Amino acid sequence: MSKSRSSLHLVPGILGLSLVLGACAGDEETPKLFDEEGVWSVIRYDLEGSGDLKDIDTMNRRDAFMLSFDSAERIVTAAACIGDANETPASSSCLLTPSETDWDCKCYAYDYVGDQMLWHEFQAGDIPPDVSLANVDDSAPADDESGGGSGAGEDQTIVDLSDIEDVASTFNFLPLPDGLFGSNGVSSRYTFQGRAGSVFDPVFNDDIRETCEPCIAE
Predict the structure, then answer these.
(1) First-to-last CA distance in the chain?
(2) Half-sphere exposure for 169 (CA within 13 Å, toward CB)
(3) CA nearest 174: which of 21, 22, 51?
(4) Which pLDDT does position 63 carry in this prediction?
(5) Which are the contacts of 111, defined by CB distance < 8 A and separation ≥ 6?
(6) CA-CA distance, 113 to 157, in Å (whole number)?
(7) Residues in the chain with pLDDT < 50?
(8) Minimal CA–CA distance to 34: which of 108, 104, 112?
(9) Three-state secondary-structure class, residue 46
């Protein structure tokens, strides 16, 4: 016991530093694969989940399928420039026939830990639901072994994230919620790349198309 006391008295600075570092470590937020804040645009897609990612047709559909994350509110707005509800990144005529397309949006509350997100849809203007990956039942079966969604409840989707080696601000999402951007909700994969915030402005203010209502009323 006396030896232990002597050791503590000899290194009070180190002991204090250790306590401070320990406290700081406990206060740190859970690490994320990347900082999601801002706007992300689909650049590749695999609607069937076949493993074959196709480049989006930039002449017709550049920045026609986008996500805008508000990390403080934990809300993501998904915007699609489409002519009808069945159009996808493979078929939209957004830039080819702009007068025949409109902005269509969906709102999701989300949680984000490590390389996974949990999304829960809600209607624009409603109070967003509470969403927590910690409450997901890991024992519940996945819809399909090839996709996300294991343990997620009704109206919820687990989105698995991965980065693209040597490509900045570019990440894979697997899957998106069922029906969003043509997703089957199980194995569809999308590659998103970061965009300037101004790219999302037409979603709410477009001189040609019908626009969207913000997910959270101002």
Answers:
(1) 63
(2) 11
(3) 51
(4) 98
(5) 74, 117, 118, 131, 132, 133, 134
(6) 14
(7) 1-27, 139-147, 149-150
(8) 112
(9) strand
- Provide the angle, in degrees to the nearest 10, between the axes of the packed helices 2-10 and 12-27: 80
Output the six-digit token pair for 78: 């998904």
Other C-beta atoms lying within 10 Å of the C-beta of residue 139: 7
Whole-angstrom CA distances from 89 to 34, 78, 79, 159 are: 24, 13, 12, 19
Question: pLDDT digit string (tens) for 131-178?
Answer: 999 988 754 444 444 445 445 767 899 999 999 999 999 999 999 999
Q: Which of 49, 27, 32, 31 is nearest to 174 (CA)?
A: 49
User: Which residue is listed with tokens 């009070």?
Assistant: 12
Alpha-helical (H) ranges within 11-136 are 12-27, 58-61
Phi, psi at residue 109, to the nearest 5°? -85, 150
- Separation of alpha carbons 77 and 16, rounded Å: 45
pTM across the whole model: 0.82
Place of tokens 């996808």: 88
Pairing of strands 102-113, 65-70: unpaired
Tokens of 132: 């927590």
- List alpha helices for the chain, DSSP H: 2-10, 12-27, 58-61
